[in-house]
Amino acid sequence: MGSEDFHSFAEQTKRSAEQYTKARELIPGGVTANIKYMEPHPIIMRRAEGSKLYDIDHNEYMDYLLSYGALIHGHGHPEVYEAVMKQMKSSGTTIFGTPHELEMVMAEKLISLYPGIEMVRYTNSGLEATLLALRTARAYTGKPKIAKFEGHYHGGYDQVLLSVNPEHEKSGDAAQPNSVPESHGLPEYYQKNTIMLPFNDFPSTEKILRTCKEDISAIIMEPVQGGFIPAEKEFIKQLRTLTEELGIVLILDEVKTGFRLSLGGAQEVYGIEPDITALGKVLGGGFPIGAIGGKKEIMNLLSPHGGRDIMTVGEEDSQKREAVFHSGTYNGHPTVLAAGLSTIELLERDGVIGELFSKTHALRDRLEELYGQYGIPMQTIGKGSIFNIILSKASIKNYRDMEQADLGLRKAIDYELLKNGVYTKPLNRYSLSTAHTEEDISRTIRAHEQAIKTVLKQR
Q1: What is one Pfam family matched by this protein (predicted)?
Q2: Within this chain, do residues 428 and 444 fall inside the same structural domain, yes or no?
Q3: Residue 278's beta-bridge partner residues?
């Protein structure tokens, strides 16, 4: 994106630029999460409705970021709102700080939908869910190390903030990737105890796992890397068989894919049962939530029955076992569960999820046709209601294949799209919602055509 393009973008979002300058004096980097930053400044939103966002400069956008996929029914769905208000009014509080009925209602729902879930524990984010899943797996197997796939993201904590998007000169051999830190402040311990695997390369993955099987407690993976590069079906089935043979816990991080590939997530689509599933995003209906679910023999390690209470001073009993500790005041928050249950109930209605997938595929088909008309090598990659635009015709099976895509052209088009009223963070994936209409899709195609024309003319 050239300086003229930045100037044009900044002029259209002048008040955002002014507010961002102020924010930088109050908040590190001016943003509350690093992923919210983009050059030359983030767009500061004022309100939202359905499939639309409105910024403080009064620009309207069709929203394809949807809080990184969390809002599967768009912004402010009236039935989700109603469920939230009903819960607060009928309960007389936003939170009990004790067990309550909705915890069991949601647990029963998730157990009925997800093949690999027999019991459930709630957290407050997808990050917390993956962290708890790994702790539980280590307790179950007694082995110290974990394995993850290069290019996969499981949250911003020390053990997994490795080789998410590593520099190629540091990443090592494709068949045996290095563990590359993605942040300052990560202890070397985690590099040594997190084994990196090559995604969609079963022979190389098998070799590493067989070599390290005595040390690896669990493999954690996104069944669809980054929400858009799917695991090959044979790869994920072979991995499931191998982990069972080697006594390694298989954790599916379905934070991005939960409810977006099917009501039963990616595991239903692929026909596998992981040992532990991590959920988040869509599950909260726009509120912060996470959950893990899995086999009873693993999940029961979290039970406090017969375990030592570390929060009670003087509680000592050598006869009591060490439970896997997990706590959080807001776990299973009733308002959040009410929103999540309403979200799922809407998806369960006849034809709703099928129509969402149909709209997504219609948009993908029309985009591919449009880019083809302008001679731009392009493909859309994804599953269900999420996908990404890849400016390359080469086969994309993992993180390293993405270097074949024309990211510079994609970024330039994305900034033009922002000026034309289509919002997703540049280079990010697209998520659709049930609120997106046929007119939204047609407007999106027109915006892409205008963006392509502008960028090609500039070049």
Answers
A1: Aminotran_3
A2: yes
A3: 253, 292
Task: Give the CATH number, domain containing residue 15.
Answer: 3.90.1150.10
| Residue type at 237 in one-letter notation | K
Residue 325 burial (CB count, 10 A): 15
Same domain, 369 and 337: no
Which whole-number Å values give the CA distances from 160 to 14, 49, 145, in the listed order? Answer: 38, 35, 11
Q: Both 322 and 339 in a single domain?
A: yes
Last residue of a domain, one of 315, 348, 381: 348
Angle between helices 78-91 and 334-348 (to 10 degrees): 140
Largest CA distance in the chain: 76
> Does 253 participate in catalysis according to the annotation?
yes
Is 330 one of the annotated active-site residues of the chain? no
Domain that holds residue 399: 3-76+351-458
Q: Where are the beta strands (DSSP E) in 64-110?
A: none
DSSP per-residue codes, 373-439? HTT---EEEEETTEEEEES--S---SGGGGGGS-HHHHHHHHHHHHHTTEE--TTPPEE--TT--HH
Q: Cα 399 from chain centroid?
A: 16
- Are residues 210 and 116 part of one domain? yes
Same domain for 355 and 387, yes or no, is yes
pLDDT reported for residue 308:
64
CA–CA dist 181, 320 (Å, integer): 38
- Residues 99-134 have pLDDT tens digits of 999 999 999 999 999 999 999 999 999 999 999 999
Q: Which amino acid is at 243?
A: T
Question: In the annotation, is 281 catalytic?
Answer: yes
Mean pLDDT of the chain: 95
Catalytic residue (choose from 122, 153, 371, 415): 153
339 and 392 fall within a common domain: no
Tokens of 24: 């930088």
Condensed to tens digits (0 to 9), the pLDDT of residues 205-254 reads 999 999 999 999 999 999 999 999 999 999 999 999 999 999 999 999 99
Q: Report the candidate in 75, 411, 370, 35 with the shortest Cα–Cα distance to residue 227.
A: 35
User: Does residue 413 share a domain with residue 336?
Assistant: no
Residues 397 and 408 in one domain: yes
Catalytic residue among 5, 63, 201, 253: 253
pLDDT category of residue 313 using cuts at 50, 70 and 90: low
Provide the 8-state DSSP code for 335.
H
Identify the CATH number of the domain in which residue 111 sits. Answer: 3.40.640.10
- Domains in the chain: how many in total? 2
Selected catalytic residue, list 52, 148, 256, 281: 281
